[in-house]
User: What shape does this take?
Amino acid sequence: MKKLITASDVQKAAAGGQKQLTVDSHTLITPAARDTARELGVQFVEDVAATAPGPAVAREDAAGSAPSIQPVPPGPTGAAAGQPGLVEQVCHKVGGGIDVQLVAQVVKEVLAQLGMQAVPAVPLVERDPSGIRLVRGNTVVCQPFDTGKPGDRVALVDLLPLKESPRMAAGFMTMEKSSFDWELRYDEYDYIIEGTLEITVDGRTYTGRAGDVFYIPRGSKITFGCPDRVKFFYVTYPANWQEV
Assistant: This one.
């Protein structure tokens, strides 16, 4: 099974005083993780003893040489790209037991680093006649969101259309070194998955990190802020938050 190192992993290592992270041929290092490592002075050191024969998906030696990454087609994967089985084909080519979610995350990281955006895609949803829905998280692709400020890097996506979830909405939102003012005409919960989210109200700033939850009542005039990167899951009531 492949091991993924993200920017968050590098930040945690640096915060704990680590200056080196051991990697081998089973390790994937995202582009954002490499950038963060350079900024924080963290080195990737190859564990030669743990390196097994086979294709190297992402490796970096002690001298910091460029990674060797098997090509992955840009854009969304699997059903999100309208090509059933594409993810499985990519995983099979990469080899080594790599999973679908890992491939999707790496592709999105690479696209973000290149300043590209994936083709708009609808998450893969399993639908039961009872109304129950299962959204496959590894098919969710956040789309750019216009905050009204040039340069902001904000993206989000609602998981279900209004006709399927008419009373409540839920989705994912990502931000990178951005901040923008927002007035909520709906109630909202934000669960932070990774990174740092800052909410400022009346001059007071509250900082939430992975595992924390914000509740923001209707009528709040706030500033969403992110000093680095953040991904969070939101729930709103009513569902048509973008229209109220």
